[in-house]
Design a protein that fits this description.
Layout (H helix, E strand, L loop, with lengths): L2 E5 L3 E2 L5 E8 L7 E7 L6 E6 L6 E3 L7 E6 L4 E6 L8 E8 L15 E2 L3 E5 L2
Parallel strand pairs: 2-11
Antiparallel strand pairs: 1-3, 3-8, 4-5, 4-9, 5-6, 7-8, 9-10, 9-11
Length: 126
Amino acid sequence: QVQLVESGGDLVQPGGSLRLSCAASGFTLDDYNIAWFRQAPGKEREGVLCISRYNGLRLYVDSVKGRFTISRDNAENTVYLQMNSLKPEDTAVYYCAAGRRHIGYCTNYSYDYDYWGQGTQVAVSS
């Protein structure tokens, strides 16, 4: 059974850091492009960043460049989202997603991803 499970969401103060995890079961993450999306209350889901399969090419949305990084631990079959210098506008439910539509690059378009986790809540507030 293919499954993605996110964890690590929490309440954090502005300027703080969090690391989200996305653990895969039923398939090998390195065979897939992996992306992190987020959805804030009342807003559309937004692609934040992704890492492509095999070559590890990364794509970041401008609002998180220099603050968020994505990494992959193939031995653990897990992808991580390290979030630093968090801002209140980063508050959202964060989802990881996996897809195989492209080779050598990834996108932040939800339609390129076939498997989704259930989400983990991140709240940034003082």
